[in-house]
Amino acid sequence: KNWTDALRYQPYDQWDKNYQQLLTETVNHSRWRQHYHIQPESGLLNDPNGFSYFNGQWHLFYQAYPMGPVHGVKSWYHVTSNNLVDWQSKGLALLPDMAYDSHGVYSGSGIVVDDELILTYTGNVRDQNWQRKSYQMLAAMNTQGEIIKAEEPLIPAPPKGYTHEFRDPQVFKYQDQYWLLIGAQTDELEGKVLAYSGDSLESLEFRGELRFADHSMGFMVECPNLVFIEETPVFLFCPQGLDKEITDYQNIYPNTYIVAENFDTDKLTLTQPTALKNLDEGFDVYATQAFNAPDGRALSVSWIGVPEIAYPSDHEGWAHCLSIVKELKLKNEKLYQTPVKEQAELRQEHTLLTGDLTSQPTTLMEETNNCYEMILEFPADSQGKLHVFADQKLTHSLVIDFDTKNGMIKMDRTNAGSPFAQEYGTTRSVSIEKNQPLTLQLFVDQSVCELFINEGQQVVTARLFPDEGADRLLIEGTGSYAGDFWRLRKMK
Ligand code: FRU
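Above: the input record for the complex with beta-D-fructofuranose. Below: its predicted structure, written as tokens.
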């Protein structure tokens, strides 16, 4: 397909009636389809949206373009869950069907107000000259699951001095006030986050720029999210064009965070912020959405994919997935990300793993079916390599290099299957504490690998597109290992 702008923005109902069904059939033949990750039925998935708990269920939406693996005119697709691991499809929920969102129902968030789930999103519009207009919009879902969009924008235009690169409202309540944080760009093309607040969502007022660092954020900030972990503010966001001197990153755009001491609402400041850090040390995490759940947890979910990059599954009619749901925690003022405890509900047949590492790669597991969780512990002086998604001759695998002596983990997808995004590097390295025992927790699902290091001190996420049958697991090195392997069941 030649994805011209005209085609990408063609309304869904102008496509041939059978088109999407045929596309879905192609997609269903893809061997990279996953078993327990949220993935698009056809076409492209990007940011998670509206992550919330409402009416006795978890709700999650995502940016969807169902007609192909490209960024076309976006809708919100809706999934619900009782346990954060089994997600039921509810179909497209917010469609680009009005003048304020004709070119895309862009990202946003959700909040429960009385007996409704209020969704805030950005209406993306292109005028005759293809100039962008952005409107911050609202929709309300009732307990029957019916969604009604407000006819008029919540915020009809960016404030004076800012461009229409103005999107991704995060709505939350803090000290009895409703807040909206929105990704923005100044007329001088600097990335900012703008804050609005009010007694109700109807009476929001522009407050100014949120202060959370004293350096430039690049040309645009997308997907701001402020959550509180026992009062402590943790701020997640995606600065585009961030200077690599500030935070080193290899992906086209990073997904970063800071931890602050306090949210000073008078001064609109996150006080005493830490330096910006990468939320994920891997290749593919972006647009993470987090919210404070009613049970007190701060939960997050990410888009596993990055903007402007082609992926091998594009050829099979689909692109990207969401991460497993993680809980955000703070220990000694450091952010930890762990799989939610519910993730264990997927565990099936268990195998104990233990042994000494040898200089030749030895098999940990044959025929993993690339659908498993594994936890491995290494004593403080271990060095070695784990081969994931390995083929028979070990010519292809995802290599996880670990060196506890020198405090280093490296993920290498150079030879892990169909190559892509090579211009952004095919390895990612992470520093860990030297001469300390190491725990690796790995979630593997067909074409994605999520690695949690030392109880989630760091996370390394990678998409990869292995050859047929490349599902062995091998290990080599010096030292020893002990741990668990579980086959995981499919999402129900
Ligand atoms: C981030 C993003 C958002 C926007 C959405 C459009 O990936 O560019 O800023 O709302 O995707 O799909």
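Notes for the reader.
Residues 46-47, 63, 74, 106-107, 122, 167-168, 222-223, 286-287, 307 surround beta-D-fructofuranose (CB under 6 Å).
The first helix runs from residue 5 to 8.
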